[in-house]
From TrEMBL:
GO terms for cellular component: chromatin. Keywords: Oxidoreductase. Transmembrane segments: none annotated. GO terms for molecular function: DNA binding; NADP binding; nucleosome binding; oxidoreductase activity. Belongs to the HIBADH-related family. Pfam families: NAD_binding_2 (PF03446), RedAm-like_C (PF21761). The lineage of its organism: Bacteria, Bacillati, Actinomycetota, Actinomycetes, Kitasatosporales. One of its GO terms (biological process) is transcription elongation-coupled chromatin remodeling. InterPro entries: 6PGD_dom2 (IPR013328), 6PGDH_NADP-bd (IPR006115), HIBADH-related (IPR015815), HIBADH-related_NP60_sf (IPR051265), NAD(P)-bd_dom_sf (IPR036291), RedAm-like_C (IPR048666). Residues 160-284 form the NADPH-dependent reductive aminase-like C-terminal domain. Residues 5-153 form the 6-phosphogluconate dehydrogenase NADP-binding domain. PANTHER family: CYTOKINE-LIKE NUCLEAR FACTOR N-PAC (PTHR43580:SF2), OXIDOREDUCTASE GLYR1-RELATED (PTHR43580). This is NAD(P)-dependent oxidoreductase.
Length: 287
């Protein structure tokens, strides 16, 4: 079998991560604050430890998947001495600032720290489509890459431990705004007797096709010239018709009005003839 690894925290996600390692033949030691959650993993071949302290003594990297930043400190602070010189991979969701704080804590205790952001739900772990974003110690990432890839695609973004979390949250920002846009459209057609399911069948391929536009927007944003020809202008992108149709249907205008405001700020600043991608500036450089 593969070398030893410890997993602290066996909630929905920690349990899935530990399970994938057990299935891959890693000598996996598991611990959870409340008893019972290790039982299924122990039956599959994991070693159950009675305390976190005992769990980290089994050697190898220590994977941490707890609730939040505070719970990570609660569990790891008393173990600082045991963790010195050990690799810690923390995939608990934390803010970029909290990830950096944990990296500084780790550095002060001689712990090699890798921070991770899981882009998957537990059922996806170990299956295609799952990915985990990492930042922090490049040595931990390289040395334990095979183990990390048991969970899904593994990418490393840089030594700043906050980067993975920042990237994770930026991707979620895009996801939630898109979800709100889909639900806004569903609400617009609902009074016309269109079910949300019917709308979803049309919206999913439409929005999927529209993601092809990201690369073009990105080229303009990175080039910094919003006047390059061939773009849809901000003036042309006025969402007045969409807002008017929504008002006729009696729906709240928040989701669309938000985009209209971003467009409006650039038109008001005299950039109406420039490309739609310029709303990046409304967001990046708020007045
Ligand atoms: P769960 O609520 O299922 O599990 C939380 C875990 O944290 C449990 O093991 C719990 O122990 C433990 N815990 C909480 N507080 C403490 C504490 N003070 N001391 C010790 N242990 C503690 O959550 P998930 O497993 O779903 O999520 C874990 C992390 O993974 C979170 O940061 C989450 O954001 C992240 N994540 C989850 C995803 C998901 O889809 N589930 C997706 C992406 C990231 P106990 O059993 O004793 O309560």
């Amino acid at each position: 079998g593969e070398g030893p690894v410890t997993v602290l925290g066996l909630g929905a996600m920690g349990g899935a991560l530990a399970g994938a390692l057990v299935d891959a033949g890693y000598a996996t030691t598991v611990w959870n604050r409340s008893p019972g959650k290790a039982d299924g993993l122990v039956a599959r071949g994991a070693h159950g430890a009675a305390t976190a302290e005992e769990a980290v003594r089994s050697g190898g990297p220590v994977v941490v998947c707890l609730l939040d930043h505070a719970s990570v400190h609660e569990v790891l602070d008393p173990l600082a001495g045991d963790l010195a010189g050990r690799p810690v991979v923390n995939v608990t969701t934390t803010s970029p600032a909290q990830s950096r704080e944990l990296a500084a804590w780790a550095a002060a205790h001689g712990v090699a720290y890798l921070d991770g952001g899981v882009m998957a739900v537990p059922a996806m772990i170990g299956h295609p489509g799952a990915s985990v974003l990492y930042s922090g110690s490049p040595a931990v990432f390289e040395e334990h890459r095979a183990l990390l890839e048991r969970w899904g695609d593994a990418s490393w973004f840089g030594e700043d431990a906050g980067l993975a979390s920042l990237y994770d949250l930026a991707l979620l920002a895009g996801m939630y705004v898109m979800f709100a846009g889909f639900l806004h459209g569903a609400a617009m057609v609902a009074p016309a007797g269109v079910t949300a399911a019917e709308f979803a069948r049309r919206a999913a391929p439409w929005l999927t096709a529209m993601t092809a536009g990201f690369a073009g927007f990105a080229e303009v944003v990175d080039g910094g010239d919003y006047t390059v020809p061939g773009q849809q202008s901000l003036e042309f992108s006025d969402l007045g018709d969409i807002l008017a149709a929504g008002a006729e249907q009696g729906v709240a205008d928040d989701a669309v009005a938000m985009v209209q405001r971003l467009i409006g700020r650039q038109i008001d600043a005299g950039h109406g003839k420039e490309g739609f991608a310029r709303i990046f500036e409304s967001i990046r450089n708020p007045a």
